[in-house]
Design a protein that fits this description.
This protein is an all-beta fold. It is about 0% helix and about 50% strand. The protein contains no helices and eleven strands. Strands 2, 4, 5, 6, 9, 10 and 11 form a seven-stranded mixed sheet that branches. A hairpin with a 5-residue loop joins β5 and β6.
């Protein structure tokens, strides 16, 4: 079992930046490919970015060039740096271990609004 706790969400103006963090406990983060998903009101949850243990990253087209996923296995933490935020980025962002339905964090609200 692995437990995931996100932090770093909040309210930001369009064009602003935020960094989300996800701390894992229970099992080493190095065992998992890690991902960030998001879910906006009335929409399905969607994959935003993923990173393998070797550092290979993958991004959804709608965040390419604006978001950066990274991981620090020594700190059991994965990050999502978000820049040039848009109102359509407003959602609850979830950390996920393994890109499966087994391990999810509680979510972090990100609201982009002026």
């Amino acid at each position: 079992q692995v437990q995931l706790v996100e932090s770093g969400g909040g309210l930001v103006q369009p064009g602003g930046s935020l960094r989300l963090s996800c701390v894992a406990s229970g099992r080493p983060l190095s065992l998992y490919i890690m991902g960030w998903y998001r879910q906006a009101p009335g929409k399905q949850r969607e994959l935003v970015a993923s990173i393998t243990n070797g550092g290979i990253t993958n991004y959804a087209d709608f965040v390419k060039g604006r978001f950066t996923i990274s991981r620090d296995n020594a700190r059991n933490t994965v990050y999502l740096q978000m820049k040039s935020l848009k109102p359509e980025d407003t959602a609850v962002y979830y950390c996920n271990a393994g890109l499966s339905n087994d391990y999810w964090g509680q979510g972090a609200q990100v609201t982009v609004s002026s």
